[in-house]
């Protein structure tokens, strides 16, 4: 008898191909997560097309409490949040595991481009997917009790290969465009979404490092560290956001030369490949959701970690994740503070 598995089926090409691959080995049940914006028709159609059981779970309340509210609070504090990294360990995977437990399924799966392994000490490992599409950064908050039950069927594939598999199988979603926006802000206008929730900061001053007023901003929630576009300020050089000061409702602009840092600090650590940091450790670090990795030394600092970059990194941004790598293995992650 094949083992049971619950797959998060979004209705996109990635999870559709994941479903097709997984049904060859597992007894798959598909779960679509309802956030109140509709769109479950494609997921239901894929499940029907593949002959797989299909269920839905209403996650609106959990999403609001654990993702949307912290997302808004982080922006209003002058930081830049990362909602997908919040959602995975607190909403998405717990919803999949809840159904898995009800069905007696030992495993859950998603269409993420990452790989899971097991260390010599028995710890579940999170590994990078193929370089072109690796999504390990966004999964780096998963704790051991979740990670050890996860299957990533697309970890050995690139997106172009997944598209080709979908085409060969004549899946209805084979040509469906990728979704690149935050799921609960489908139009991508996060500032307008925050404004609709109310209590957003009023316009204030753009200032330089000396406090001289350079212009007026639309509200600090419209800006992020390192931003250049959309400032509307002219001067002797291009301007970049180099600091956000919620306490004075000011956005600090500079020529960008002050944005690089050779140190930053992280809290709320989630160790994956190791139990903790016992001393200094060499690694590479990603400071944002990109392919850029910087050689660094991790240094214990109480309940936090100081990251000493061997090459200065541009604009380590409070609210974003620092993810630590040893080759293709994710050592752990922490929130930049």
UniProtKB/TrEMBL annotation:
GO molecular function, one term: tRNA-uridine 2-sulfurtransferase activity
Any Pfam family: tRNA_Me_trans
NAD among keywords: no
Marked site (Interaction with tRNA) residue numbers: 112, 320
Reaction equations catalysed: S-sulfanyl-L-cysteinyl-[protein] + uridine(34) in tRNA + AH2 + ATP = 2-thiouridine(34) in tRNA + L-cysteinyl-[protein] + A + AMP + diphosphate + H(+)
Residues the entry annotates as binding ATP: 8-15, 33, 111
Keywords: ATP-binding, Cytoplasm, Disulfide bond, Nucleotide-binding, RNA-binding, Transferase, tRNA processing, tRNA-binding
Keyword RNA-binding: yes
Record-annotated tRNA-specific 2-thiouridylase MnmA-like C-terminal domain positions: 265-336
Principal EC category: transferase
Entry function: Catalyzes the 2-thiolation of uridine at the wobble position (U34) of tRNA, leading to the formation of s(2)U34.
Family: Belongs to the MnmA/TRMU family.
Protein name according to UniProt: tRNA-specific 2-thiouridylase MnmA
Native species: Pseudoflavonifractor gallinarum
Taxonomic lineage: Bacteria, Bacillati, Bacillota, Clostridia, Eubacteriales
Gene: mnmA
